[in-house]
Every structure is written in structure tokens, then in C-alpha cells.
Amino acid sequence: MSRWVTRPSHVAEVEGGGLARGFRAAGVAAGIKNSSPPALDVGLLVSDVEETVSAARFTASGVQAAPVLVCRERCRLDALRAVVVNSGNANAATGGRGLDAAAKMQGAGAMVSGVGEDRVAIASTGVIGVQLDDRKVVSGLLAARSELAEDGDARFGEAIRTTDGFPKQATLDVTLPSGVVRISAQAKGAGMISPRFATMLCFVQTDASVQAETADLLLGVCVKRSFDRISVDGQLSTNDTVILQCSGASGVTVAPESDDELRLGEALDYLLRRLALLIAADGEGSKRVGRVVVHGGHDEAVTRVARAVANSPLVKAALHGGDPNWGRIAQAAGMALPGTAPLALDIWIEDVQVCARGAAVPFDEPALAAAVAGDEVEYTIGLPGEGAECEVFFSDLSHEYVTINAEYTT
Amino acid sequence: MSRWVTRPSHVAEVEGGGLARGFRAAGVAAGIKNSSPPALDVGLLVSDVEETVSAARFTASGVQAAPVLVCRERCRLDALRAVVVNSGNANAATGGRGLDAAAKMQGAGAMVSGVGEDRVAIASTGVIGVQLDDRKVVSGLLAARSELAEDGDARFGEAIRTTDGFPKQATLDVTLPSGVVRISAQAKGAGMISPRFATMLCFVQTDASVQAETADLLLGVCVKRSFDRISVDGQLSTNDTVILQCSGASGVTVAPESDDELRLGEALDYLLRRLALLIAADGEGSKRVGRVVVHGGHDEAVTRVARAVANSPLVKAALHGGDPNWGRIAQAAGMALPGTAPLALDIWIEDVQVCARGAAVPFDEPALAAAVAGDEVEYTIGLPGEGAECEVFFSDLSHEYVTINAEYTT
């Protein structure tokens, strides 16, 4: 567990996982991933509650995958009951044929779930620019239907992953003033991860009874503090999707602006930040995770600097090598704020100040070298002024990242 | 020689190099680089002509190195006679002490050159955030004075390099309508290279007689088409400096808006693009160079897409692996233009169209795989509309880049 995420006292881990009440899930091998032995690559997740409400967030990219376009144009995003996901193919940059395949995937999802098409969200992840074989997806969904189970979250989570090195899911029991609710979540993502969102999928289920407006509000706030704040390689994806579904099956009602809402929000915030941090830690080839916190007087300036540092391949490579090369932090900050020289920059690495008002300060080099040798390294940057702050988590840049990405399609 | 740079017919290479008339240069080992045997690390370049005019360009970073600040604040940038450069230390993020060291470097340069301090430009390159030992620079300059020579460009060029894998310099004879002039240039740069400028230094000398306004105009136009259009790792540096000096020692006068000016500009454009391409080719650990050309209807859109593609570590890794993974090109373009979906994107790799109006098109995969196995790979992107175009050269992302940058200071 990272020191950067603290579990609230009213939140308990559920060992062994399992879905929130009202949900069932499955994962099957449909032959979309070209792997031997066959890997799980089609996931199905269904709420059995007619009144289920939902909220969703998608990539801001100008090149959006067919499933994202279909979700945005053909779904009731506030009332999603089923989610269909395939891995191994992103169905992106696939034109009209890709939209047809996505529509068939949605239609098959509706059939096997027994709900209307507009209540079925679809998502894809994998290689871009290759046509998706929708017959394989449909066959997979038929098989998945008979495997739907309340503890199907592990197989569903496995079916949505691609280059991920480890599972990213959790089940929490959350004690609200009005009663106990459960939240379960399954995420994937390890490459093409940007702080402006990420090539990542995350599906969250709760059995709390929540209004659609509340679900949208909570998801929006928590995504901004989690998946919007991680960088593996600064690359915004074509397929990013986050969906929150609320079945209400616990019987616990979370009213707007209540203490229940506050507590549920804290739990969701903890959950998504934890999953986001796992994505950064699982950055392709990653060995170490960095956290940069920038404070100063201007929201835009602190955000730009935090992202520039988190995205810098030089900072990432230094993190990889356990090299306390803070000059690259100053360089990235300066690049993010052109025309501001001389910039009165303060820099700390693991609470050791290395730069004060733009100039190097003497520090204990062996102590700092030891501090940056750990699994997590924290960088703090002070810009002039007060009141604004931004944090971004980022992975390092390793030889393995190059190996993975130089040999992906071939 | 790259297919992307064509030598104009009125320009001839001078085998064996040498400086333009009126200039002398030297490079010495002053002990700033911590290497064994000692490497050249202090360079001195002097014009013997009192009437020498000049032009200069510097980094736009908010964190500017002391030598850049000193040049901007204390130099007559239109009348520089001497240039003093050290490698092995960037004298950046070094505060008041760094500014003092830079001032001493400038003062020593004036002394050994016999010119006023305001006519001495200084530049530094190397590690950031470490104080520069100005006594070593001063000792080096005293030694360099006695070594100044008309063929000192090779040693000067060597003294300004850091992680460069090969020399980047050239000497050209340029036949103008009014006579023959010579241009010589020495450049360095291999990492922290961004299309918004680069961690690079370039010093250009000509014996043409040019007005300062003309020098500034020509340098500005040519930098925009060369050093402003390359990316190794998207990292804008603290020290970027380009200086053009014109001694007039050839006796050939280049009048404003004359054919002479046009021809001299063509030669300078050729020279700087060639050096810029050498910097991209020498990108830290680089094996291949890419060129992305984006055309469409909007200047800002084509520039943003070209830079996003050139800076993408995924595109760079695919270039490295000889992987025709054009989906990453679509992804980078989409990231550069959020909110424009669906984007009618066309993509060609080496004249093979792989994407038309946003969708994959069938292509000859073995032929394309062979095409991207060469030393240079060209990517063309069409956005809607016509009239705007931007090209950026970029290096690939290799294991060696990670090795070099994970172990730089330690």
C-alpha cells in the first residue's frame, strides 16, 4: 500500500473481493487476443436491478474509438445496466466498419443481459487501427451469459486487461451513517497513460441507492483527483472510459448533500486514487513511482508544471536510475512556464530542499541518494504565491518500456 | 546526407572545414568535464573585425541559465565579436553565484579577446544545478588565447559538445551574385531537444558584410525552420543559444532585399536544417530519424499535431523498433486536438496510405515493414482543409536513451 493513499476509518477492505449487491459479472476467452493458451478477453457485467443509475467519463481525444462514440451517442449514460468490454483490440480508427462492430457488440450485450440497447455500455482496449471481429465478441458474450456470477469480478477484471502486470481491483465495505454499502471496482491500464486522462478503463459498482445527479457529481470529482492525475507516458488515449453504476440493492439511500454522500464520496475518492496509483505503478516497465506536488499562487501554473515534470522523459529516466538529478525538474518547470524568467523556484526531493528561489542549495548528497532509491519518490515544487496546488503521480521510464513499445504490433 | 535536406546549387562544401574569414577559434581542456583523459571543455571564438555584426536567439524557458541571462542583459547582441563557451556544466539554477561566475567568464573572454565585455557572448552546457568553477574557465581562456587559429573550428566544436555522438559542423562556400562568401558553423546537442527549441548551441560565422537587421531577420527565419523543428525528447532546455556573426571580411556586401540576401538566406537555411537534422539523428541513443509532415487548413492545428507526434514516446519507440504502428500516430493526433472527434484524419507512412478519413485502409504490410526499416522514416498526416503545413524531425526512443538518462549525474 502506498503512503500517498490513506484508507478512511469508515472503509474496510473485503478480502477475496466480490461485487456490490445487485451485480454479476463474467470473463471469457473469445480468441480476440492472439495468445496461447487463450487469455480472457471479453467481459460482461450486469446489474439485475431495473432502477440502476450510472455516470460515465470518456477520453477528450479528437480521435475517439468506436465504442466511445457509440456510448456517447446511443446510451442512457445515467441509467446503464450492463457493460461489455473486450481487450486485445481497441476498435479505434476503424471507420464505419468499426462503428458497425461496436453496434453489434452493444446489441449482443443487450440480448445476453435482457436490457435495452441504450442501457448497455461498451468499451474496448488494445491495438488501434485493426478491425474488431465482432463475431468473436458475440460468441464470447453468449458464453459469458452462462457464467455470470456475484464473484465474477476477478474474471471480468482479468478479461479487460492488456499489458497490465497485475490485477487492479478492489472491494470495499463502507459504513455510512444510514448503513453499510459495498463498492467494487475493476480497472486496467499500464501504457499510453496521461494526466489528461489515460488509456485506462475502470468500472465501479455500488449497491448504495444514489440519484443519477449525485453519481455524476461524485464520479466527476473523484476522476479529477485520480485518473486525471497520473502519467505513464503523457499519451492521451482513444478509449479511456470510467463508469460508475449504483444498483441500490443495499437499501441504503444516499441523499444529496447528506453526510452519507460525503462519506461515500470519501470512499470513492480513496478507491479511485488507489487504483490510479496502481496504474502508475504498473506503468509499462515501471520500477518506481513518483509523486510531484506543486504549490503556488495560480491554478494553471501549478497544473502545467506538475504535468510537465510528470511527463518529462528525463525526470522519469532519473527516477528509474535512482538519480537525484533535480536540474531536470527545474528544466521541466521552466519549459512549462515560458517567458517567466527568472523564476523563483523552490524544489524539495523527499523533504530535502535542493533548490531555493531558483538556485541550488547545499544538501546531504548520500542521504538524498538513499532517499531516491525507494519504490516511491516525492518531489515538491514551490512557485511564487499561495493557494493553488496540484499533484500528479507518474511512473519511471525504463528499458522495458522501450522493449514493450518497440515490439507491440510486430 | 539526408534526403530531407537538399544542397542549393550555389553552395559548395569546403572539405576539411575552416572558419569564415575574420574569425579565429580554439578549444582547450580546462578540467570542467570530469573525464579521463581530459576532454576539451572551453571554447573561444573571436572576430578580428571591429565592425562585426551579429544576431542571437535564446531559449524561451522560464528557467534560464546564468549565461543566457547575462547575454540578454549585458550584451550588444547586434555586435558580438567574441563567444566563450564551456561544456560539462550548464551554470543553470545556480542563483547569484552562478551569475557571478557567468560575469567572470564574460570578463575573462573580453580580456583574452581584447574587446569590450558587452561584445562577448557566453554559453554553457552540461549538468544543471551545480556551481560552475569560474577559475577553471578563466584558466582555460588564457590557454585558449594562444591557440586561436583560423582552422580552430574543429577544436572549438569539440569543446562545446557533451553527450553528442559525433561532430556537428560545416564550412560552406556560397556563390552570391556579388561574390563568394564563406559560412562556418559549429553546433552541439543530443538530448533535451524539443521542437520549441532545444538544448543546443550553434555558432555561425560568415565573412559576408551584412547589416545587423538583415542578420537578425535571416537567423530568425532559419531557426524557425531548423532548430525549432526537431524533437529528441520534447524537453525545452535552460541554455539554448544560437549566434550568427558576420565579419564582412570577404568584402562582399549583402544589401537588404537583394538577390545576395536571398541566396545567403538559402545557404543559411540549408546549413541550419542540416545541423538540426544531425542533432535529431544524434538524439541520445538514437538509431533512426523520423520526419512528420502535417498539412491542413489551420496553422495552429498542424503545428500541434506535428509536435505531438514527434514528441510521443510511443511513436518514437515504434520508430525504434521498425514497427509500422500507425495507430499511435492517430492517437497522438487526437490528443493534440481534443474535442474535435470524429477527426477525418489521413495518414501515410513512406507514401503508403494506412488511414483515410479516420479509418484504417488495407495496405501491403510486408512492403510497409520494409519501408520503416530504413534509417529515415517519413510520416505524412492530412487534416481537413488546405494551406497550412508543419514539419518536425525527431529521433527514436531507445534503450540507450534510458541508460544515458538514468545514469547521467551519478
Question: Would you kindly provide a written description of the structure presented here, covering whatever features stand out?
Answer:
Two copies of one chain form a homodimer. With 410 residues, chain A is an alpha+beta fold. Chain A has two domains: 11-281, L-amino peptidase D-ALA esterase/amidase, CATH 3.60.70; 289-406, Ubiquitin-like (UB roll), CATH 3.10.20.340. Chain A has helices at residues 66-74, 95-113, 134-145, 153-159, 212-224, 259-281, 299-311, 313-321, 327-336, 365-371, 399-406; strands spanning 11-13, 23-28, 42-47, 53-58, 82-89, 120-127, 168-176, 179-188, 193-194, 197-198, 201-206, 209-210, 230-231, 241-246, 253-254, 289-296, 346-349, 352-356, 359-360, 376-382, 388-395. The radius of gyration of chain A is 22 Å and the shape is globular. The two termini of chain A are 36 Å apart. At the A-B interface, α2, α8, α9, β18 and β19 of A face α2, α8, α9, β19 and α11 of B.
Topology:
Two copies of one chain form a homodimer.
Chain A: E1 11-13, E2 23-28, E3 42-47, E4 53-58, H1 66-74, E5 82-89, H2 95-113, E6 120-127, H3 134-145, H4 153-159, E7 168-176, E8 179-188, E9 193-194, E10 197-198, E11 201-206, E12 209-210, H5 212-224, E13 230-231, E14 241-246, E15 253-254, H6 259-281, E16 289-296, H7 299-311, H8 313-321, H9 327-336, E17 346-349, E18 352-356, E19 359-360, H10 365-371, E20 376-382, E21 388-395, H11 399-406
Parallel strand pairs in A: 5-6, 11-14, 12-15, 13-21, 16-20
Antiparallel strand pairs in A: 1-7, 2-3, 3-5, 4-14, 7-8, 8-11, 9-10, 16-21, 17-18, 17-20, 18-19
